[in-house]
Amino acid sequence: MSGKSLLATIVLLVVVIVGFKxxxxxxxxxxxxxxxxxxxxxxxxxxxxxxxxxFVNKVRIFDGRLITMDxxxxxxxxxxxxxxxxxxxxxxxxxDVEKYYTATSGDLRRAADLISxxxxxxxxxxxxTRTLNEVVSGEREKLMAEVKLWLNDPTAARAASAxxxxxxxxxxxxxxxxxxxxxxxxxxxVELPPEVSSSVYQRMRTERERLARELRSRGKEVxxxxxxxxxxxxxxxxxxxxxxxxxxxGIGDANAAATYAQAFExxxxxxxxxxxxxAYSESFxxxxxxxxxxxxxxxxxxFSKPAVVN
Length: 310
Known about the structure:
Mean pLDDT: 81
CATH superfamily of the largest domain: Band 7 domain
CATH topology of the largest domain: Tetrahydropterin Synthase, Chain A
Number of strands: 9
CATH architecture of the largest domain: 2-Layer Sandwich
Radius of gyration: 55 Å
Helix content: 55-70%
């Protein structure tokens, strides 16, 4: 290869590299700033194809989408001085690229640390003005909304706050100082510290056992009442049944006696004869029975004088 050809190749290669360095693309989901020797000359480069002067200009491109920052669990005190372990996360995105670059040098980790400090401060303030019950259920949504307001617009939050101390403790808004906007602050979980949880669970278990014993006692009391009512009703039913049976038996005996009386009045001698036959049948039903009676006894009347029956 001749010297001219090598020179031409080198020149072409340099032109290609310079051309490649002169072109950059910003996606729809990205935000970018253009620098000239480290100074911002374009604070918000629009999406699309752009050109720059190599070695003079430099472009820093950042993710413009929503970023989720999961904070490590932190310990906070409520207004009752009860210690809680709070697990939360924050969603934010860049709204002012120049401020974001100036405050963080475009370092996502540094931005996350700065936002995390502010979120922790506001959560600590909000937890410190509320009771345990309010934090867990009563005002949880309100707490998260106020934290978000303090982070984005401290001026409005100070005006709306009734607590002067909490208002004084607020930091500058993240939009003004970091160029980002906090879209949402969420508390995932609120727990008691491990050293307290066991005693709390033991108290809960004791309370449930006490309630269970109370319910069992009430159940036994109700069962005894039901049993007593059943026994009383059983006694009443048996008494009524015995009364009815005795009344019916008395009526039957009375009817039988009346029938016997009518039969006796109609033919007394025949009635005596049938009664005697019944007595003979019952007396001589056993083959081995022995009776000692006088021959002229009244019992053998119809054996000795059968003609008396007409």
